[in-house]
Amino acid sequence: MTQLSDDFDCPAAVAEGAYWLPFSANRRMKANPAPRIIARAKGPFYYTEAGEELFDTLSGLWCTPLGHGHPRIVEALKTQAETLDYCTAFQVTNPVTVRLAGRIAERAPQGLNHVFFANSGSESVDTALKIALGYHRLRGEGNRFRMIGREKGYHGVGFGGMSVGGIVPNRKMFASGMIPGVDHMRHTHDPAHMAFSRGQPTWGADRADDLERLVALHDASTIAAVIVEPMQGSSGVIVPPVGYLQRLREICTRHGILLIFDEVITGFGRMGANFAAERFGVTPDMIVFAKAITNGVVPMGGVIVSDEIYNTFMAGPPNAIEFCHGYTYSGHPLAAAVAHAVLDVMEEDAVLERVRALEPVLEEAVHALRGLNLVADIRNIGLAAAIDVAPVDGAPGARGLSIFEKGLESGLLLRCTGDTIAFGPPFISTPEQIHAMVDGVRRLIQAID
Ligand SMILES: Cc1ncc(COP(=O)(O)O)c(C=O)c1O
């Protein structure tokens, strides 16, 4: 590592606190940093400074499904850095990014043919919300300003995404900064009716009628858009009930409300399809994507919009800037080159088929944990699953943290939020690796019982 002197003591530096980690228990980490310092990664594994191998059970943060250090991606990055390392996206462009927009649109549902690039899920969500406001205003319906999100939803950490999001700890500290006019539908997870469902629960489609209730309360003429994750990832793989997304679509269409799918986790393969929209057979007006498009190697996100939305913006004086929004790094050529490599690998290695073949392997493996004393619920769809562990009385999250920390000692980098363990293994995982991952978690749960 050329950037570091040989005597750099990373655990000591972490303990000093110059680096403030995001979404982390910083003081807990500073008390014992060594097991959490990752030095390198290859394929589905991370390696700590001490050389311990950790299976990457969540593909990074759902973002590295093709594994680490993929030679095609490394090559694309090097070549692009030598050819065009940066190019502004304001009033000029470059062939790599232009072609990428086309390739993404080719994979999107019919009618969604235009891509606006950002650099993260959060930026992409806020971009989609702004597009929704602009669209209605351009059509003379500028009074449509409300955004409808959903409880337990995660749409990143920008002010817009935070406001439409529904995870309480992410909201309460910043309550005074919420954007105005946001309301939420109920989430669809009700263990009394759907615990231990395999794939889509059959109960719960009528939770979509919450939207009708909000339309009755606010009047459709004030509502711009509804944003949902087709599968709620960050709050623990909450799978849409059969018919739920279809019903949301119908209600939105009936009332002229835009439907936005936040596919930051589900986009580009996690559901065994290019997008969850395809898997669940529902076409939204916009798809937000990020993460897997670049295999997490260079940040990139974006919004795919319908012809109707794009064409609405493309009216007005021909020399005018149609959408006063964008980022210094929108459509960054390094990210775009990596994204091309990702799409190439996905095609050439038939990655979607591989995900579909692994889905039943993961399903069987996780549901085999049903019956363990502390296991309260298990859910799965595509190559995603979650296990809820019963919380300690008066100390929610304590068991999850304990499982996470013990995982580090037994070869697993786990994603535990509260007492939920989420799995999103790399698409390149073997069935044996998936079984080993779940068996490891079985032992961890048994050990804390
Ligand atoms: C559905 C969804 N939307 C948005 C985001 C925010 O993405 P980022 O962390 O890249 O800003 C995430 C991140 O996990 C996500 O899962």
TrEMBL record:
<keyword id="KW-0663">Pyridoxal phosphate</keyword>
<keyword id="KW-0808">Transferase</keyword>
<dbReference type="GO" id="GO:0004015">
    <property type="term" value="F:adenosylmethionine-8-amino-7-oxononanoate transaminase activity"/>
</dbReference>
<dbReference type="InterPro" id="IPR005814">
    <property type="entry name" value="Aminotrans_3"/>
</dbReference>
<comment type="similarity">
    <text>Belongs to the class-III pyridoxal-phosphate-dependent aminotransferase family.</text>
</comment>
<dbReference type="GO" id="GO:0030170">
    <property type="term" value="F:pyridoxal phosphate binding"/>
</dbReference>
<dbReference type="InterPro" id="IPR015421">
    <property type="entry name" value="PyrdxlP-dep_Trfase_major"/>
</dbReference>
<protein>
    <submittedName>
        <fullName>Aspartate aminotransferase family protein</fullName>
    </submittedName>
</protein>
<dbReference type="InterPro" id="IPR015424">
    <property type="entry name" value="PyrdxlP-dep_Trfase"/>
</dbReference>
<dbReference type="GO" id="GO:0009102">
    <property type="term" value="P:biotin biosynthetic process"/>
</dbReference>
<dbReference type="InterPro" id="IPR015422">
    <property type="entry name" value="PyrdxlP-dep_Trfase_small"/>
</dbReference>
<dbReference type="InterPro" id="IPR049704">
    <property type="entry name" value="Aminotrans_3_PPA_site"/>
</dbReference>
<dbReference type="Pfam" id="PF00202">
    <property type="entry name" value="Aminotran_3"/>
</dbReference>
<keyword id="KW-0032">Aminotransferase</keyword>
